[in-house]
Amino acid sequence: MKKTTTALLVCATAATAIASSAFAEGELNLYSSRHYDTDERLYSDFTDLTGITINRIEANADELIARMQAEGANSPADILMTVDTSRLERAKSAGVLQSIDSDVLETRIPAYLQDADNQWFGFSQRARIIFYDKTEVTNPPMDYVSLADPAYEGMICHRSSTNVYSQTLLSAVIENFGTEAATEWAKGFVNNFARDPQGGDTDQLRGLVSGECDIAISNTYYFARALRKDVDGLPADAMANIGWIFPAQNAEGAHMNLSGGGVAANAPNRENAIKFLEYLASDQAQNYFSAGNDEYPAVPGVGLAPSVAAMGLFRPDAVDLSEVAKNVPEAQVIFNQVGWE
Ligand code: FE
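That is the input. Now the predicted structure with fe (iii) ion docked in place:
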């Protein structure tokens, strides 16, 4: 919380400075739960292009949504940015977003990456895929279904069920295969865990290096980041022993995890907010999602950073992610049933 306040204060000072300059076009209050330092550049580029200053408040998504609800009509929030469709849907059902009309967003962002009511738009994509230790595993699972196969007993590392990536993954399994099959799947998957669920995605990859895990599930950008630069616990020689599978390429496709945002329900700077979302869909910003944070751009045809290109192209699961997000409560029930901590 302290960091949040500091960021706001620092930006508020910058806002004062810019307000007196000839380029002043107003400001934009951004509530963001994206946790990537590289996003700084995205914001400063926007300010350079438009003269609009960004005041940023960072916290986790649920805190930001609760804050926007508590602030109500007086909320200074113009934009909410977060990761994962489940959270974007949570924001929508909490009533903190509004529908907007933008030809730019309509044409640039593929339909399956947008909310049907234009309350949120996806700006970058990450696939949640299978990584494995090539020195230990000769027959890696080729799809999500196989992760429940007893052949992989005691081999797999994944995060806890309190994490939104776990929630959305199981919600997608429910959407694709039905509740009964998803329950059986979760039972088998948990049975195959190498250890109690713990840590973030990078920790799952570190588990491959330490030998604790033979198979690990992680979003692509954590691995691509370690290809691009030094990440503690993932040295280059060990990275060379990690293989990866884009799952279910002959079936439903790789499970996608979106990062996106929308205009706040009571945005005081609504026009600037729409301008900001349109900027995020520009080639420049789209390229930076890839170059800065190793994500796949949402806009088709935008170039990939070398670290992302190294992972390769794949067929994504085209299931409607806003439908998937509606299964989260059901996923919670299954987590409890199968003892996925
Ligand atoms: Fe993440």
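The pocket of fe (iii) ion is lined by residues 83, 201, 219 (CB under 6 Å).
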